[in-house]
Design goal:
- This protein starts with a helix and ends with a strand.
- β3 and β4 form a beta hairpin.
- The protein has a five-stranded antiparallel beta sheet, with helices on both faces.
- It has a single domain, classed as Beta-Lactamase (2-Layer Sandwich).
- It is of the alpha+beta class.
- It is built from two helices and five strands; from the N terminus they run αββαβββ.
- The protein is globular, with a radius of gyration of 13 Å.
- 27% of the residues lie in helices and 38% in strands.
- Belongs to the LAMTOR5 family.
- Its main location: cytoplasm.
- It is found in: Cytoplasm; Lysosome.
- This is Late endosomal/lysosomal adaptor and MAPK and MTOR activator 5.
- Keywords: Cytoplasm, Lysosome.
Length: 90
């Protein structure tokens, strides 16, 4: 499984503008991290996704977009939870 996670992270990082990514299991354990991202954020990313899904329990898993001055963090849960960090304007 470790090789599959590394392959996914590499594919994400190959996309222009992506500067980091994190994958976490449903308990918030970091499965992998690449680029400008922290494995310490895995639990927070899962918690944000879980809380956002409670806003409309009848819909599918939401995509959450968090923006700062220079970055965007997009979070989505589909079995495992992933976060992609993008350079704003790229």
């Amino acid at each position: 499984m470790e090789q599959q996670v590394d392959n996914i992270l590499d594919k994400v990082m190959d996309v222009p503008g992506n500067i980091g990514c994190v994958l976490a299991n449903s308990q918030g354990l970091c499965l992998g991290v690449k680029g400008n991202a922290s494995e310490q954020s895995a639990g927070i990313i899962v918690a944000i996704s879980d809380l956002a899904s409670k806003l409309d329990p009848s819909s599918t898993a939401p995509v959450i977009s968090l923006e700062s001055n220079d970055k965007i963090c997009m979070i989505h849960k589909q079995g495992i939870t992933g976060a992609i960090y993008k350079q704003k304007g790229a």
